[in-house]
Design goal:
Blueprint: H1 3-12, E1 16-17, H2 23-28, H3 40-43, H4 45-58, E2 62-64, H5 72-75, H6 84-99, E3 107-112, H7 127-144, E4 148-154, H8 157-170, E5 174-178, H9 192-200, E6 206-211, H10 215-228, E7 235-239, E8 244-247, E9 250-253, H11 257-270, E10 272-277, H12 283-294, H13 306-311, E11 323-324
Parallel strand pairs: 1-10, 2-3, 3-4, 4-5, 5-6, 6-7, 7-10
Antiparallel strand pairs: 8-9, 8-11
Helix pairs in contact: 4-6, 4-12, 6-7, 7-8, 9-10, 10-11, 11-12
């Protein structure tokens, strides 16, 4: 089945289930804090293959390449800026090989995260340079076999525009997600209404939100996006698996498989059609989410407060002794 036919199916079917976290699951497989997950495409390809396969076997219909921080800006922090093409090509190649092993159609999204740099005049990065940086990465993802470009976890519209311009040069279909916080806006102050207007004027097949501060806020963001839509494009919801905390020296996410399955159903009811998990989401969570979504009727009536009533509000804490990880420490890396 070709990618065009797959997108036609996306518009007709109830949902498309994406995968879960990359970084936090690779930590469980031995990745050390401070190491670049993207370098594992070269150094530990079997473990990347293993993680993709686990998500696909759990029911993911769409997987993201291990390339979130695969731009030259991010890789230079690990003295690997000259390996952009190699790292991203292999990231797509591994994911595509995994996807092609399944009878059910499985799509591969080329994951592209933020540069981590500020644009002029706040920083030194020019718009034209940003387009070239993004295109270098995206062209390699395309060459490796990615079906489309997935721009994610951005917070500023100038950077998003540069990324979309670069993606358009590849000729691949493109989608994007911003990361919204507890105040309903991105770190750079972009709200859902402004985001929707921007996306409706861009060449995108889908858009939405990822990461964030928990499943209830993700559902709330989907509701806000849906309310402001004039063009009925599929909405993406890829929320974190609850809120992280330190427990016995480890980062633990509060979202159980049951909570994430309810989140998936609520995100669907709120209007999302591409649904997955971000930081902390394991294949076990994805399996329960797939089962839950399969049971959903095509048309669902939604209560405006249902997500807060069933999933709780962000930062709601019952054990005051737990130390919370600040949101700012997670913004620039999809985990």
């Amino acid at each position: 089945m070709g990618i065009e036919t797959s997108f036609d199916r996306l518009l007709e079917d109830k949902f498309l289930l994406a995968d879960g976290a990359t970084g936090t699951n690779l930590f469980l497989k031995g990745l050390l804090t401070g190491d670049a997950p993207e370098l594992w495409n070269l150094n530990q390809p079997k473990k990347i293959f293993e993680l993709h396969t686990e998500f696909l076997e759990a029911g993911s219909q769409l997987i993201l390449t291990n390339s979130f921080g695969g731009s030259s800006c991010r890789l230079k922090l690990h003295n690997a800026e000259k390996k952009v093409r190699e790292i991203n090509f292999i990231a797509s190649e591994i994911a595509k090989e995994c996807a092609d092993k399944f009878q059910e159609t499985k799509l591969v999204a080329g994951s592209v995260g933020p540069t981590g740099e500020l644009f002029e005049p706040l920083g030194l990065l020019t718009y034209d340079d940003a387009v070239e940086i993004f295109h270098e990465q995206m062209d390699a993802l395309k060459s490796g076999g990615a079906d489309f470009i997935w721009i994610e976890t951005l917070s500023a519209l100038d950077e998003l525009k540069a990324a979309i311009d670069a993606a358009n040069r590849t000729g691949l279909p493109t989608c994007c997600t911003l990361s919204f916080d507890t105040h309903g806006s991105t770190m750079m102050g972009i709200g859902p209404e402004t985001f929707v207007r921007f996306c409706e004027d861009s060449n995108l097949f889908s858009y939405g939100a990822n990461c964030g501060v928990g499943p209830s806020e993700m559902v709330d963001t989907v509701l806000q996006i849906k309310k402001n839509q004039n063009i009925d494009l599929p909405i993406i919801a890829k929320g974190n698996c609850g809120i992280p905390s330190y427990q016995e020296g480890k980062i633990v996410y509060s979202g159980t498989p049951e909570i994430m399955s309810r989140y998936a159903q609520m995100a669907f009811s709120a209007g999302a059609r591409i649904i997955g998990g971000c930081c902390g989401t394991t294949p076990l969570h994805i399996r329960t989410m797939r089962n839950a979504l399969e049971k959903m009727p095509n048309s669902v009536r939604y209560s405006a407060d249902e997500h807060f009533l069933q999933l709780g509000r962000p930062w709601q804490e019952t054990d005051k002794s737990k130390k919370r990880i600040k949101r700012s420490s997670l913004r620039n890396r999809r985990s």
